[in-house]
Structure formats: structure tokens, C-alpha cells
Specification:
The protein has 425 residues and is of the alpha/beta class. Helix content is 39%, strand content 14%. It contains 14 helices and 13 strands. The longest helix has 32 residues, at 201-232. The relative contact order is 0.08.
Length: 425
């Protein structure tokens, strides 16, 4: 049987994943959006979203949504959806600290008959092996007798104005057959694109991690091809365009692989694989290659400076873009920083300009001061690192104004025609 129409939903974590979800549920059901950050709650209550994933109009349309940083406001809820981050630590191991703490919070207000759904990316088995025991010990309730659990992996694509939550098929699952049916019906109420009910929670968890592992490996292949073609003096993009005329050639491109999913999720799968005694070779090889691309890009640029007889130590480079992808303010796991740090190791003076990033966020995350208006004619090289719409619309002429005499324009993202740049990946 589906949840009653008067179901009360709590969304735990109001970031890139949680807020869009809370807004969609808040259009139809009584929903509490919970976040441990009072400032985040305050901005949402003012009708603002610093992630730019939800507009003021959409927030107004969520008439049944309230945002809160008070745990007491969760007590009346009967369905709890956890959307907290699941990062990796400095050793590239899964960091489940936010997930554990969120489970403790939910366990503290859990009641008989309630349901807990996890959307955070995890390795297969984590929901039932890590989260459920915390829910049981904190609440004093018994799993699948007093409460049920589900898993529905998030598929939010930051900055994508076309693929939004309602028009992306949602995978669902539950810890019992009845729970799976109820959870699937709940999501079906807000997802016109439809749902796919997985056979188990572990299947749904595994589906999530391989979605981005597949993309990671495909981009890794493109990066290796780019390195090979660069050594051969062949334009990589020209090769990919030619190969792309075949009907089944996949349209991946080389680049820096960062963000909250592609650069992180594979490590969750490899962690679990190694835990059960299997050393994954292909996945880790792709990760090593992609993680090293920032240094490769910096090396390319330094070689180009040397070839133009520009003194590397003290050279000035303007990096255009700091976010992990275009047209969003998301700095999570951006690999542009790798290229910046490598350039600094060579003694290069690096300025960063990104119209999507708040200066205080860049300062807090990386100690970088965002240059609001770069100085024209001041730089020995301009590195176009992120394909923001502002850079695309500006074009090569405007971007070259930042460079001095004999400067290098490195188009990392194939934003410009080949003839308009001096260097490409």
C-alpha cells in the first residue's frame, strides 16, 4: 500500500541533491528540509539558493516546504530521506562521517512505522551494513519490524538546465517488498519521467557507483589518447570528430575529471572490491590517469612557454574557470586546482578568474583570491580551464586581450575553433 496522502517527509541535507528534492516533494507533501548549517537554512527561507540549482520561483511553488536546522522539527515526520555528501578522504578512501551522523540524527527521532531512504552515493551493502545498525542502536527499534529502509540513488547533474530531477528516471528500492512498492509510489508522485524499481537495495547501490565509474573510464581512455596524440603531433579533437562519424562511437572528450560523482564514486566501488579480496585493475588505472591530468596540463603549458623562450619562473598565467564543470558554482573536488598547484611549483604566478565562484568560497576552499577583472595585456599565458558560457560568448578575441605579446592561449575544453588557440589537450 502507498504512503498516505498526509505523509510528512524530511529531507536531511539541503545541498545540490537535497534542495531540489525537497522542493519537488514540497509542492505536493508536507516536507521539512533539514540542514545543520543555519546560514544555509536562512538563505533558503529568504527564497535564495547559492548553488543556483533552484530558482526563487521554484522555492515559492514549494508551498508545503519549510527549512529548519532544528532536530525537533523532524519528530513529526514519517519518511526521512538522507541526501548528505559522501566524499573520500586524503587517502582516497570512503568517508562516511556525514552519512553516519545523519543516520544518528534520524535514529534519534525514528518511530515505529517510519521509513528511511538514502540517496547518498555508497558502495554496495553500505545502507544495510553501516546505516541500519546506527538507526537501530540510536532509536532502539528493530529493522524491518519497526521501521523499513530504502535506497534511491541521486542523479542530480549540477548546472544542467535540461536534465532536472522531474525528468530523470529514478531508481528505487526497499528493504521489504512492501517498502519497495511504497517508496517507488512516493517517488512516482514527483517524477514524471518514471521510476525503475530495483530488485534490492544492493542492486540500486551498485547501479549508482557503476554509472559514474563507466564515465570515468571512458574519459580516462580519452585522456590517454590525448597524451598519445599530443606526442604524435596529431590534433585530438580532429581525431575524435572523425571517429565520431561512426554510429556507435561514444562522444566522450578528454579533460579534468572532478566533481562530487565521477572523481569520487569509483573509489567507493574499489574500496568494497578490495574489502572482499579483489584488486580492481582497470578502474584504478583509469582513476590514476585521470587524477594525474592536472599535472599533465600544467606540464604542457610550461613546455609551450619554454618553446616561446618565456622565463617560466615568474611568468604570469591567467586561469579561466575554477569550478569542476561549466555553468555552476560547484567547487567540490575540482581538478583545476591540480593544474594551478603544479604551475605554482614551477614558480609561475597564477591568477584565477571565474564569474561563477564567490571569492570567499575560493578563499576558504583553496586559499585562492578570485580576480574579478583580469588585467588586459598582463599575462604570458591564458588557460581556458572551464567552458563557462561567459567564456564561450566572449570568444578568442576577448580572451586574448588578457595576454601580452607572444602569449599562449590554451583551450583545455575545446571551446574555441582549433585555429583560434595555440594549445589544446
Amino acid at each position: 500500500m502507498p504512503f498516505a496522502d498526509d505523509v510528512k517527509i524530511a529531507v536531511i541535507g539541503l545541498g545540490y541533491v537535497g534542495l531540489p528534492l525537497a522542493v519537488e516533494f514540497g509542492k505536493k507533501f508536507t516536507t521539512v528540509g533539514f540542514d545543520i548549517s543555519p546560514s544555509r537554512v536562512a538563505e533558503i527561507c529568504k527564497g535564495q539558493d547559492s548553488t543556483r540549482e533552484v530558482s526563487e520561483r521554484e522555492l515559492r511553488e514549494a508551498v508545503h516546504l519549510t527549512a529548519s536546522a532544528e532536530v525537533a522539527d523532524l519528530r513529526a515526520c514519517t519518511v526521512f530521506i538522507v541526501t548528505v555528501p559522501t566524499p573520500i578522504d586524503s587517502s582516497k578512501r570512503p568517508d562516511l562521517t556525514p552519512l553516519r551522523r545523519a543516520s544518528e540524527t534520524v535514529g534519534g527521532v525514528l518511530k515505529p512505522g517510519d521509513t528511511v531512504i538514502y540517496e547518498s552515493t555508497v558502495y554496495p551493502g553500505a545502507t544495510e551494513e553501516v546505516c541500519v545498525p546506527i538507526l537501530e542502536s540510536t532509536s532502539g527499534l528493530s529493522f524491518n519490524r519497526d521501521f523499513t529502509v530504502g535506497y534511491s540513488p541521486e542523479r542530480i547533474n549540477p548546472g544542467d538546465t535540461q536534465r532536472r530531477l522531474p525528468n530523470i528516471v529514478k531508481v528505487t528500492s526497499g528493504s521489504t517488498a512492501e517498502a519497495a512498492e511504497r517508496i517507488d509510489a512516493l517517488y512516482s508522485a514527483i517524477i514524471p519521467a518514471g521510476t525503475h524499481k530495483a530488485g534490492s537495495i544492493r542492486v540500486a547501490e551498485a547501479a549508482k557507483v557503476i554509472e559514474n565509474t563507466q564515465r570515468d573510464l571512458n574519459i580516462g581512455l580519452m585522456n590517454e589518447l590525448a597524451i598519445i596524440f599530443n606526442k604524435l603531433g596529431i590534433d585530438t579533437e580532429a581525431v575524435l570528430q572523425a571517429a565520431g562519424t561512426k554510429w556507435n562511437f561514444l562522444p566522450f572528450r578528454p579533460g579534468l575529471v572532478g566533481g562530487h560523482c565521477i572523481g569520487v564514486d569509483p573509489y567507493y566501488l574499489t574500496h568494497k572490491a578490495e574489502e572482499i579480496g579483489h584488486h580492481p585493475q582497470i578502474i584504478l588505472a583509469g582513476r590514476r590517469l585521470n587524477d594525474g591530468m592536472g599535472a599533465y596540463v600544467a606540464g604542457q603549458l610550461v613546455k609551450a612557454l619554454i618553446q616561446r623562450q618565456t622565463q617560466v619562473k615568474g611568468a604570469r598565467v591567467l586561469v579561466l574557470g575554477l569550478t569542476f564543470k561549466e555553468n555552476c558554482p560547484d567547487l567540490r573536488n575540482t581538478r583545476v586546482i591540480d593544474a594551478i598547484r603544479e604551475l605554482e611549483e614551477f614558480g609561475v604566478r597564477v591568477d584565477v578568474h571565474d564569474p561563477w565562484v564567490a571569492s570567499e568560497e575560493a578563499r576558504e576552499a583553496f586559499g585562492i583570491e578570485i580576480v574579478v577583472q583580469p588585467e588586459e595585456g598582463a599575462y604570458d599565458a591564458v588557460l581556458l580551464a572551464v567552458a563557462h558560457v561567459q567564456f564561450r560568448e566572449a570568444g578568442a578575441g576577448a580572451l586574448r586581450k588578457y595576454g601580452g605579446e607572444g602569449h599562449i592561449l590554451y583551450d583545455l575544453k575545446y571551446v574555441l575553433p582549433a585555429s583560434d588557440s595555440d594549445l589544446r589537450l
